[in-house]
Design goal:
heterodimer; A: about 140 residues; mainly alpha; Helix Hairpins; disordered C terminus; B: about 950 residues; two-stranded antiparallel ribbon; 40 helices
Chain lengths: ~140, ~950
């Protein structure tokens, strides 16, 4: 079981880092999410893998280590807050800079390809009334 | 003790001019003069003891581990230099009072001057080599600040920068030399070092030590080939040039030659290096000085030449040469300081220092002219002035030495040549400024300077005369004491008489005088020759060098690492981490530890495989963002199952609810971002990222496996034992969160609140792309699916009930404020999703900011509440109450805290999602039709 668990952590980390190294903001956010999964599992592993021994007094003879769990619980919630912040930052960056490249500008020499790409979009015109959030 | 006071006084006194400058310029100058004056009195009170040959040392430990101690010594050599520093310092303060314009910040000037004075006193009295280096650097720094005093002028800034670079680099070399020296000797204490001369000279490292220390000395004392900074330091105010760049700071180098003379001198290498550098510097300086049109430039090169002369004397193999060197240091300080001051007066009263413009000033400033004449005479070595005596001694030693073996005759010949030029530029200095025709092109009408500006020159010139006429009386004991320290033994016989009879040095002097006068008479012919030489501007050459070598290379290197690509940085960062971690793991004997593996069961394998496959798919398919997001959500749900499988029910619940909120959030975001990623990566990028990801993943996996197969040492027993008795709950994880480590949780909900508010701020006024205008995206025709609408209706009350249940049982069973808050948030978001924003907003007309604030506030107040009972922050109390119908119920203050957590989580989550959702309301026509 320990080997399986380690391989799972390894694959989550590897895919997370691969996505983290992408050039667009959205895959980076997904990469961060995968990495935080891996980190949470790793933290849990510090309390070792126990089956059927939740840290609830009175339910059994021995209990799993509650401390890593408390850490992971806060990490999950904080992770959500962080993911939310990063995604909105990415959104804002796209609005301000006109693209969603992590460096804030499109790489040179790739405009041609992008123009051919079907997903090319144009920013809404400033002053367009649909842009304003309705009350 | 008294000695430390002499050094401390200027440092303490730095504040005086800063405070007193608002009371007028005279008050400022008077206040500045107090520390050096008091120091001078203290110093003179020790004169008799020093002249008797006593060496006073005071010491305190500073950093004994490094061999650094605060140790100061007063012996003949440091007494001589202290006297120069304090006495000339006082005169410079008086002079500076009249030199500085009313608009110049005087407090800053005098403050820096005192700082320099303290540093310089530290250099000459330090009895520990590391301490000496420290003060040495401090003189470089304060010199930098003083040269750039008029920091609005670019030549001042550039000159200061160059001086600091050259002397600072030399200082570093010297530090290295001193460190090796201390290592060889075993101590940085000067007494020990000076007594270990033989040990040092015979050590294999001796050449390295000598060269490094000489680098420091030669840069500081402006010796060839490092002399070029001194002329450019002349952009400093003239009192600074007079004090730092002729009388004291540039003497620090030759001081160190004297200080370390017993330890380092006496080898062939010393004689050759020191005498050759001195000889070249002396000649080069003297020749260049003659052709400088700027008065300060002339004096700067003259200073270089005289410093070269002193260096040359230290490099000769006779003991008498050292006496001559010390004597000349004193004489040079007096006549050169007064000459600089005279130049300052000329500059101040006429507005120019150009000798081609200046002429016939003797009529307008007779007093200054006379003083300048005497001082220049001393510089040229005219009899009855102090310069004559030390020059005679120098010529005598130049004849007597045998440094170069068969070529030793070169030194006296070159010495006479340098002296010829010295005489010529002295004559030019006086003749072109004070004599000749009426000046016509002066910027200002010339007139005599105020008396107090001339007074310091008067005193210095008086000294030149007194020493020149009655040397034995005035300077005999001082010179003897200094020479005795430097030679570390009996001093050779010498006579300070004016007349030694007709001997070779006198004939050489006369020859030089005659030739020098002839050279000046043919000045224009010589100048024509000089101007045919290629002109090198040291400043430009230096800055080009610095630019090409330092700045361009640094920029190239920086560009290599910092190319503006985040992906590049991240991959370097991760690879670096992998390398560091791998080096640590390398030490393990085997990756697998002793703990036996636990058995695997088919469901676990299945879940793990699904998670692995979907994770890999989300990476491969990341260009199709919606698909990748679906894969990601499968991994997240799998996480919840993993937590449930390994005895972590709280985590499973939290993960489940957070996963739902996260996916909703990412879907919302994806609506506003392009649905596909363009293919940016080249093949090389993919390979690089693949390697980085694989190595990092493998590393983390190996680390996890290594930990998992080793025995565990936990610190959690305390929590398990005290959970019920101390925290009143059986769910240890929850008790840790709200009680044992409640402060962490408090910090965490604060972070969450800040993130939510930060997002709110980011969303404000955001420019958006309107995805509805994209023709490539096909939108669903059914905006509000019927099934979702119908199912959603009973879900809200049910979900709220579940939340209350989960919340209440949280202290004893899996659950708690975090999870309950997330469940409520999901239930409310579902309303938004199913019914649309307008419909929901009409029914939920409240703001989420107060909710977030109330949550954090409640948690904080609960914590503060324990203070009223004299307990530390966030101490929880609990008891059991019997409530009718419900029976016995436990109420704990931790529950109040948990309510705070609950409110903060609900508020923050909805604040984030509802505001993001509002951005979606780009097209509300469909809603209006509803």
């Amino acid at each position: 079981m320990e080997l399986l668990f380690s391989v799972l952590i390894a694959i989550l980390t590897g895919t997370g880092i691969y996505l983290l190294l992408r050039a667009r903001t959205f895959p980076v956010v997904m990469g961060v999410a995968l990495i935080s999964y891996a980190v949470n599992l790793f933290l849990l592993a510090m309390g070792r893998l126990r089956t059927g021994q939740p840290a609830i007094i009175g339910t059994g003879e021995s209990y799993t280590d509650p401390l890593p769990q408390a850490l992971v619980l806060t990490a999950i919630v904080i992770g959500f807050a962080m993911t939310a912040f990063v995604t909105v930052l990415a959104l804002r960056a796209r609005g301000e800079l006109g693209n969603d490249h992590v460096d804030g500008f499109e790489e040179r020499g790739r405009e041609q390809e992008r123009q051919q790409s079907a997903s090319e979009e144009k920013p809404a015109e400033p002053g367009d009334d649909t842009q304003e959030p309705r009350p | 003790m008294l000695l430390s006071l002499i050094i401390l006084l200027p440092f303490i006194g730095v504040l005086l001019p800063v405070i007193f400058h608002r009371y007028g310029r005279s008050a400022c100058a008077w206040a500045t003069a107090i520390p050096p004056f008091a120091g001078l009195l203290l110093l003179l009170s020790q004169a008799s003891r020093v002249f008797a040959g006593e060496v006073q040392v005071v010491r305190w430990n500073w950093i004994p581990e490094l061999g650094l101690e605060l140790a100061f010594r007063l012996d003949g050599l440091s007494f001589l230099f202290c006297l120069l520093i304090l006495a000339i310092g006082l005169l410079v303060i008086l002079y500076g009072r009249y030199y500085l314009a009313e608009t110049d910040p005087m407090g800053k000037f005098f403050g820096l001057l005192l700082l320099f004075m303290g540093a310089m006193l530290g250099v000459v009295t330090a009895s520990n080599l590391l301490l000496l280096v420290l003060f040495w650097e401090l003189t470089s720094l304060s010199s930098f600040l003083l040269i750039s005093y008029w920091n609005g002028r670019s030549d001042a800034r550039r000159g200061a920068r160059m001086a600091l670079t050259v002397t600072g680099a030399g200082g570093l070399a010297m530090l290295a030399g001193v460190l090796i020296l201390g290592h060889v000797v075993g101590s940085f204490d000067l007494d020990v070092v000076l007594a270990s001369g033989d040990l040092i000279r015979e050590h294999a490292w001796y050449p390295v030590i000598l060269v490094l220390i000489l680098l420091g000395i030669f840069t500081k004392s402006a010796q060839f080939p490092f002399h070029f900074w001194l002329p450019h330091a002349m952009s400093a105010p003239t009192p600074v040039s007079s004090y730092l760049h002729s009388a004291t700071m540039v003497k620090a180098g030759v001081f160190l030659l004297a200080r370390l003379y017993p330890a380092l001198s006496g080898t062939e290498l010393w004689f050759i290096l020191v005498s050759m550098v001195g000889l070249i510097t002396m000649t080069l300086g003297a020749v260049t000085a003659l052709f400088k049109h700027d008065l300060k430039g002339l004096l700067a090169y003259s200073t270089i030449s005289h410093l070269g002369l002193v260096t040359l004397l230290f490099g000769l193999d006779t003991r008498l040469a050292v006496v001559a060197a010390l004597f000349h240091i004193m004489n040079h300080a007096t006549f050169k300081a007064s000459l600089f001051m005279a130049v300052g007066i000329v500059d101040h009263e006429t507005g120019t220092r150009d000798m081609r413009v200046l002429s016939g000033l003797g009529k307008y400033m007779p007093m200054t002219a006379m003083l300048g004449l005497i001082a220049a005479g001393a510089m040229a070595g005219v009899p009855l002035l102090n310069g004559f005596l030390s020059t005679e001694m120098f010529l005598g030693e130049a004849v007597a030495q045998q440094v170069l073996g068969g070529w030793s005759w070169v030194i006296p010949v070159v010495a006479v040549l340098a002296k010829v030029f010295s005489v010529a530029y002295s004559i030019r200095f006086i003749h072109s400024v004070f004599y000749g025709p009426e000046p016509t092109e002066l910027p200002k009408p010339p007139h005599e300077a105020p008396f107090f500006m001339r007074a310091p020159i008067l005193i210095l010139v008086g000294l030149c005369l007194l020493v020149g006429i009655a040397p034995g009386l005035i300077i005999g004991p001082l010179l003897a004491a200094a020479a005795e320290t430097t030679l570390a033994g009996p001093i050779p016989y010498y006579s300070l008489a004016i007349w030694h009879g007709w001997n070779l040095p006198l004939l050489m002097s006369i020859l030089a005088m005659v030739l020098g006068t002839m050279a000046y008479l043919n000045f224009h012919r010589l100048l024509g020759l000089w101007e045919r030489l290629p002109a090198i501007n040291a400043m430009d050459a230096f800055e080009d060098f610095v630019h090409d070598v330092v700045i361009v290379r640094a920029r190239q290197f920086t560009g290599l690492l910092e190319n503006g690509s985040l992906q590049h940085y991240l991959s370097l960062l991760i690879l670096g981490t992998v390398v560091v971690a791998a080096t640590g793991l390398w030490g393990l004997e085997s990756i697998r530890g002793d703990v036996p593996l636990s058995p695997i069961d088919p469901p676990s394998v299945a879940i793990a495989l699904i998670m692995m496959v979907t994770a890999v798919y989300s990476a491969i398919w990341h260009h199709e963002r919606i698909a990748a997001l679906m894969f990601l959500s499968v991994v997240g749900l799998g996480m919840a199952l993993v937590f449930a499988r390994f005895s972590a029910p709280d985590l499973a619940l939290t993960q489940l609810s957070v996963e739902i909120v996260t996916i909703v959030l990412l879907m919302l975001i994806l609506f506003l971002l392009p649905p596909k990623s363009p293919n940016d990566s080249t093949y090389g990028h993919l390979v690089r990222d693949g390697i980085v990801a694989t190595s990092a993943g493998t590393g983390v996996g190996v680390l996890a496996y290594a930990v998992l197969t080793r025995p565990q040492e936990t610190i959690s027993d305390y929590f398990i034992q005290n959970s019920v008795s101390g925290g009143g709950g059986t769910n240890v994880v929850n008790v840790i969160l709200v009680d044992f480590r409640g402060f962490d949780t408090f910090g965490e909900i604060t972070v969450m609140a800040i993130a939510a508010i930060g997002i709110f701020g980011l969303l404000d006024g955001m420019r958006l792309f309107d995805p509805k205008k994209d023709p490539n995206i096909k939108w669903a025709s059914d905006k509000y699916p019927l099934l979702l609408l119908i199912l959603n209706m009973p879900v809200l009350p049910l979900a709220l009930m579940v939340a209350v249940y989960i919340f209440l049982r949280g202290h004893n069973m899996p659950g708690g404020g975090f999870i309950a808050g997330l469940i409520v948030a999901i239930a409310l978001i579902l309303q938004y999703l199913a019914n649309g924003l307008r419909w929901s907003n009409n029914r939920m007309q409240w703001d989420y900011h107060p909710l977030v604030g109330a949550g954090v506030l409640l948690a904080g107040l609960t914590g503060l509440g324990s203070w009223f009972f004299g307990a530390p922050f966030l101490t929880s109390a609990f008891d059991y109450f019997t409530i009718p119908l419900l029976g016995e119920v436990e109420l704990a203050t931790a529950m109040l805290f948990d309510i705070g957590v609950f409110l903060a989580v609900v508020g923050a989550t909805l604040l984030i999602l509802a505001n993001l959702g509002k951005l979606r309301s780009l097209d509300t026509s469909a809603e209006e039709n509803r």
